[in-house]
Amino acid sequence: MVMKRPKLGVFLFMAFLLAYLLFLKYHYSTSKASNFRPPPHAESKLVRAGDDRPVSADGFDFQYGVMFDAGSTGTRVHIFKLQMKSKEPPIVDHETFKAIKPGLSAYADDPEKCAAGIQELLHVAKSSVPPSMWAKTPLVLKATAGLRLLPGEKAKQLLEKVRQIFHKSPFLSRDDSVSIMDGTDEGISAWITVNVLIGGLSRADLTTVGMLDLGGGSTQITFSPRDEKTIQMSPIDFIRSFEMFDRTHTVYTHSYLGLGLMSARLTILGGSVDPPGGSTELVSPCLPPQYSGRWEHADVVFTVKGQKAGEPVFETCLTRVQKVLYGKIKRVSEVVSMDFYAFSFYYDRAVNLGIIDEKLGGAIRVSDYTDAARRVCSGPSAEPQQNPFLCLDLVYISVLLQEFGFPPHQQLRLARTINQVETSWALGATFNYMETLRGS
Q1: 82, 127, 264, 434: which could form a disulfide with 90 (CB 3.0–4.6 Å)?
Q2: What is the CA radius of gyration of the chain?
Q3: Looking at the annotation, which residues are catalytic?
Q4: Which CATH number is 62-181+425-439's, of 2.60.120.1200, 3.30.420.40, 3.90.180.10, 3.30.160.160?
Q5: Which parts are annotated binding residues?
Q6: For 174, left (φ over 0), alpha (ψ -120 to 50), or beta?
Q7: Smallest Cα–Cα separation from 81: which of 67, 66, 64, 59?
Q8: Buried b vs exposed e over 369-379: b needs ≥16 C-beta within 10 Å?
Q9: Do 346 and 416 meet the contact criterion of CB atoms below 8 Å apart?
Q10: What residues does each domain of the chain span?
Q11: Residue 1 carries which DSSP code?
């Protein structure tokens, strides 16, 4: 009996220690479980071995989004690979981009003909997204000014044809996946895009930049006001508030339909998409003297001519453009003190002038457009066939910027891409659509 007492003591000690360890394990596991919150889309991370769904090293999963931009001059597809984060803007890991011409509105009289182009861009999407992700990847088409300017029934038939194609695709497509985008939403989405890409929306205390977009059918301005007077003195429909990334954003935004560069060209030249009496000959002081050529717009082929030599081209064209824009633009004094990015035709014309690099972008002053307009319009028309509209376009851009309230010395940043992502409204609209999916 004396020899067994130590063994009994050891046994009792080990039993007590085991019970204590089991108690600690139970207590720890239950307290951790009560505080655990799964990250966004956590259920999608529970994948089988061999599944090709991408997962980042820090545990955040990737999601894809496919956005079709049906503009007035072409249709573009953006395929975004996004690293999702809780309560923060997603990080764009990669973008695949392709554009085709003409725009969707070119098929207004025969919607069936748009199918080939849509299928071509869908093929790009399917080759860019892993097959295991197709059913979870939202597929969206938003049409802009080109379809906004079409008669309602024609636009409806085009959208319905695209909707049928989308529903047959392997991607996530709903009835609201195909629509005409409101011009205001276009401006807001572009503002979201550029501010996400430069990091302006990653924290509430960071400064955002404004956005200027000059498309073919419409032009937009969007910025976040810092002066309360801007909000108080602006038309009520120019101020919009919205929730995104768990924060409320208030912006000044407006889209001017019909003041995109191609639509404005037609107005400045004195034409219309439904010419009275079928006359399609347009004579303008904004074209090189004695120039004669053809220009197609909105499925109408116009004969365009310059006036006789001897007219002061720049001054005469400037007067004409000022009359076209008179009273149509709301001037905002606050833009003078803000940084702005400018896209689309602002960028393209700066490239034409050699002021910025076509791939890298750069910066331009408002006065650079004005000085170039004066030089091009008044200079020798040695190569009018190459770019006969350059004088008109530059005069229009310079007057448009002044009407917005930008002084000659103000500098604008021009970027076609930021961090290898297109600076269009497509990324912002993709974020917005994903938000609606989460809320549905």
Answers
A1: 82
A2: 29
A3: 186
A4: 3.30.420.40
A5: 216-220
A6: beta
A7: 64
A8: bbebbbebbee
A9: no
A10: 62-181+425-439, 185-261+318-421
A11: -
Tell me whether strands 218-223 and 247-257 are parallel, antiparallel or unpaired: antiparallel
Query: Cis (ω within 30 of 0) for the bond into 170?
Result: no
pLDDT 10s digits, 370-384: 999 999 998 765 454
Residues of each annotated binding site for ATP: 216-220
Residues of the chain below pLDDT 70: 1-60, 277, 380-385, 439-440
Strand partners, 83: 62, 91
Superfamily name with CATH number, domain 185-261+318-421: Exopolyphosphatase. Domain 2 (3.30.420.150)
Q: Which residue has the tokens 């969007």?
A: 222
Largest CA-CA distance found in the chain, in angstroms, rounded = 129
Label residues 126-159 b or e (16+ Cβ within 10 Å = b): eebbeeebbeebbbbbbbbbbbbbbeeeebebbb
Contacts of 109 (CB under 8 A, 6+ apart): 154, 299
Distances (CA, A) of 54 to 94, 112, 249, 279: 13, 37, 31, 58
Q: How far apart are CA 109 and CA 229, in angstroms?
A: 47
Read off the pTM.
Answer: 0.80
Cβ-based neighbours of 29, under 8 Å, separated by 6 or more: none
pLDDT at 15: 59
